[in-house]
Design brief:
251 residues, alpha+beta, five-stranded mixed beta sheet, 8 strands
Length: 251
């Protein structure tokens, strides 16, 4: 049977405009690329020029086999500072030290000005029950360091108040200086972990240690931050505090 030409053309046109039996699925949008995690460069401390003439300023507190009032073995203590006069650009920096274990011995922190017997800061505690890395904020003590003055600060475990020669003592020195030109601009907007690098490169030890410790306080479970602080401590020969800072269980 033959179809008229007009009917054939209508049939073809109907096929052309008829909707498809199966609708095409829209193409999936490409997954957004995950931005790479920025890995911080290691903290590299650059000692100030004056450091070469001031070696031997750090005192480490060994136990020498002593015991505290309760008969427990005395811990070792270390001030977290290089073995030279270390610098800060801050009027009220934070001082850090390490204690290897708790103790029932008394505890004393002093900050002393040159040629002055009376300490500028003196903090006494009945016992030194907290182990690990500890800190004292001079801002909380309402004390400001004067520019250009070298101060000595000491930590003492007081074994016998009647015989202070038995004290276990650790100490170091701190000096406030002006920040290098251009440093403030670099610090602007930088997070504490990156600030640690900038301060260390500028030779400002106390500021670098405070910056990385501030980052740790905000994220105490970060193994990377603890490793970065431990590496900084190792740079200046503080091996025991560095090793303790990398242990999984921390106080």
């Amino acid at each position: 049977m033959k179809f008229p030409l007009a009917s054939s053309l209508l049939w073809v046109c109907a096929l052309c405009i008829a909707p498809p039996l199966f609708a095409a699925e829209p193409a999936e949008a490409p997954a957004a690329a995950t931005p790479p995690v920025k890995k911080l460069a290691p903290i590299k401390y650059k000692p100030p020029m004056l450091a070469a003439e001031k070696i031997g300023e750090r005192i480490s507190g060994g136990t020498r086999g002593g015991t505290d009032a309760a008969g427990g073995k005395l811990p070792s203590i270390d001030v977290l500072t290089p073995d030279h006069v270390a610098l800060t650009s801050q009027a009220q920096p934070t001082l850090f030290w390490y204690q290897s274990a708790p103790s029932k011995a008394g505890f004393e922190i002093t900050l002393t000005e040159p040629d002055k017997a009376k300490p500028l800061v003196k903090v006494d505690l009945a016992t030194a029950e907290n182990a690990g890395i500890r800190a004292l904020s001079l801002a909380r003590q309402k004390v400001e360091l004067q520019p250009g003055v070298t101060y000595r600060w000491n930590i003492a475990l007081v074994v016998d108040k009647a015989n202070r020669s038995k004290d276990v003592i650790a100490g170091g020195k701190i000096k406030r200086v002006a920040a290098p030109a251009g440093l403030e601009a670099k610090l602007a907007g930088a997070p504490p972990a990156e600030r640690a690098n900038l301060y260390a490169e500028a030779g400002l030890w106390y500021d670098a240690l405070q910056a990385i410790s501030t980052a740790i306080a905000a994220d105490p479970g970060s193994a990377e931050l603890h490793q970065r602080r431990a590496a900084l401590l190792k740079e200046v020969g503080l091996g025991e505090p560095a090793a303790a800072d990398q242990r999984p269980a921390r106080d």
